[in-house]
Each structure stands twice: as structure tokens, then as C-alpha cells.
Write a structure and sequence with these properties.
The radius of gyration is 18 Å and the shape is elongated. The N and C termini lie far apart (40 Å). Strands 1-2 form a two-stranded antiparallel sheet. The chain is mainly alpha-helical. Helix 1 crosses helix 2, helix 1 runs parallel beside helix 4 and helix 2 packs antiparallel against helix 4. Helices cover 74% and strands 4% of the residues. The chain has four helices and two strands, in the order H-H-E-H-E-H.
Length: 108
């Protein structure tokens, strides 16, 4: 049940933010859906993964300032239902974007 709530709430937030940006910039929703999906997916990956470049930079800065050598972490992605929802949102946006570019969806 908790997984479904996380999944659905992630999709609702992504749809709401994309809709708000589409209204703010007077762009059709499906025109920016793919790009906002990519942005959301990257944000979720950044916050749900461990290690990586950001963590190594922080470890280097801490080691330099304190002299304490920290353990280096290998990048590891922790898939979550928020990440799955973001990927699904991105794929749906990609399908709409391809249909829009190929002319199957008429311009407004």
C-alpha cells in the first residue's frame, strides 16, 4: 500500500509541476512532458543513489579540511517506486514528443 501511495503521489507531483510550467510559459503540456520527466528522473537518481561524483567531491573536501580520510563509496543506484514513476512519466512524455515531432499530433 505504501509503495502504491509513493508511486501515485510521485506521478501526481510530476504532472502538477509540468502542468504549472506549461501554463506559466504558455506551452502545451505534451511539449514539455518529456523534458520535465528527464529532469525529475535525474533529480530522483541524484537523491536516491549513494556514492558518485558528488559524494566523492564532498569526501575530498572533508579530507582536505580535517585530515580525516573518509571511505570512498562506489556509485550505487537504489531503485525506488519514485524512480520507477519518474521513468514511466519520461517514457510517456517521449512517446508524446515523438508523435508531436512526426506530425501525428496536430499543432495548436
Amino acid at each position: 500500500m505504501k509503495r502504491a501511495i509513493i508511486f501515485i503521489s510521485t506521478l501526481i507531483v510530476e504532472f502538477a509541476v509540468t502542468y504549472a510550467f506549461s501554463q506559466l510559459f504558455s506551452i502545451r503540456f505534451i511539449e514539455i512532458m518529456f523534458f520535465s520527466g528527464v529532469m525529475f528522473t535525474l533529480i530522483v537518481i541524484f537523491f536516491t543513489s549513494s556514492g558518485g561524483a558528488a559524494r566523492n567531491y564532498y569526501n575530498t573536501q572533508t579530507t582536505t579540511a580535517t585530515g580525516i580520510i573518509l571511505r570512498w563509496e562506489q556509485f550505487k543506484l537504489h531503485p525506488s517506486f519514485a524512480l520507477i514513476a519518474s521513468i514511466i512519466f519520461t517514457v510517456i512524455g517521449l512517446v508524446f514528443f515523438i508523435l508531436l515531432i512526426s506530425g501525428h499530433i496536430p499543432p495548436a
